[in-house]
Amino acid sequence: MSFRRPAAIIFAAGLVVIAAGTAGLLLTRHSTPAMRPVAAGVGALPAPTGPIVAAPQSAAPRPVAAPVSLTIPLIGVTTKLIKLGLTSDGSLQVPATTSVAGWYTGSPRPGAIGSAVIVGHIDSVSAPGVFFRLSELRKGDQVYVRRADGTLVKFLVTTVQQYLKDQFPTRAVYGPTPDAELRLITCGGAFDDATGHYLSNIVVYATEAS
Amino acid sequence: MRFPRTIRHITMLLAAAALLLGVPAAVAAHASTAATGTGWIRLAHLSPNTPAVDVYLYSFGNSNAQLVLHHVTYGTVSPYEAVSAGDYSVAMRSAGASATSSPVLSTSVTIAADRAYTVAGMGPESGLRLVVLDDDLTTPSGKSLVRVIQASLKQQTVKFTCSCGGTLASKAAFGSVTSYAPIPQGTWTMAAIGSSEKASLPVSLVAGTVHTEVVLDGSNGLEILNLEDAAGAGLPPAGGVTTGFGGTAGHGPGSPVPWAALIGAGFLLALTGGLRLRRRGLRRQLHSEV
User: Fold this and answer.
1) Hey, of A29, A107, A200, A210, which one would you mutate to test binding to chain B, going by the most B CBs within 10 A of its CB?
2) With a cut of 0.95, is the ipTM above it?
3) A19, A145, A177, B40: which has the fewest Cβ within 10 Å?
4) Using CA atoms, how far apart are residues B230 and A108, in angstroms rounded to an integer?
5) What is the DSSP letter of A139?
6) Distance (Å, rounded) from C-alpha B91 to C-alpha B101?
7) pLDDT digits 0-9 by tens, A62-96
8) Which residues of B touch A86 (CB under 8 A)?
9) Maximum distance among all alpha carbons in chain A?
């Protein structure tokens, strides 16, 4: 019997290793759930008041003042808008704090002809950011931008899309449009712990209410 | 001797389990489709001696107009109207004519998603025609696009220049449309020079914008109408936007790879041991039979 023992030990050790591996696999299968946004409408804000300046009935260029604040009543967003440019690698600058949104100064001003771009963070390392609930928006929801001259421009959401960042549709988001539109951008999708970045962007498309 | 057979059965079970346990690589792919399906159309009256008209836009096969512009006079260009992609027809009637009367002029236009069109009444009244123009919605990085529509009947041919250092049209005939020219960002003087009249207009061009300059017969001679057709980011940011630090993200399960490797190693060990046991068991059976 003794000559057989090494083989038996190898066999038993194999079974033990399989059991250990299976246990390890099962024990690390659980994941930490994402923080879910509260339901749309909870914490809603009243629409801002002020003169809403609608588009004049002409295709000639219309000068509008720079944007200063953003209100999205349904998801309780009200924030000042800082100015954002491009980083040295050509990507879009983002606000240094996660509690404010910013307007890309290389895009048209909100309410002028074209696609105005506003970005904000979905979260910080520990808490929700200004655009945490952006993905709750649906077609027809209202977005207001106040401008430096006190005028207000109202947009209605047309669609909300999620794109993998490495398939970001630059043309659709930043390309010219013949009417006054707005793009609200934040992060979304899966978070890559290895790189510390979300894999996707959420883009809200809106057009000026006529 | 039962032992080798038991070992063999366990070994076979292990092999079958190994096949079944193939680690599936489940990759959640998000479809990145822009599900808008809308395009844009605008309507223009650019025939100098044609009186005011009512312009109707019909979705193809629908006798109820989707859009009606009343009393459109020469030199009027409407804002763009967003419409579902598809086939449409545009009809012009004399201003005030019944909506059911037969139109003076009509044409069909196919509107593709994310594209823009201008449908203009052009030419002299005697030869009035509806022209469908495909409007560009893409600009070269850092530049503007500018085209010229020559709609002056009094000045049959017009030279059109830009102080940016270019001639956009050397001899534009009445009723003609140039192709788009890329122009650097800046404030430039656009000039239209006819045989007996001329006009000039300072125009600010921001990168990422598309413009149409229309040459018109004004009440005091030649005029230039500057239209901003579309605008976008002159320098589109590269790639996606880094707008999150993961504080609210779900953190996925740990990688299964090391555990799968461990299980694999276990299989190898058990198979090795199992085969050796079985071989020795057979050898012992052989010995006992001899």
Assistant:
1) A107
2) no
3) A19
4) 10
5) T
6) 11
7) 679 999 999 999 999 999 999 999 999 999 999 99
8) 235, 237
9) 100
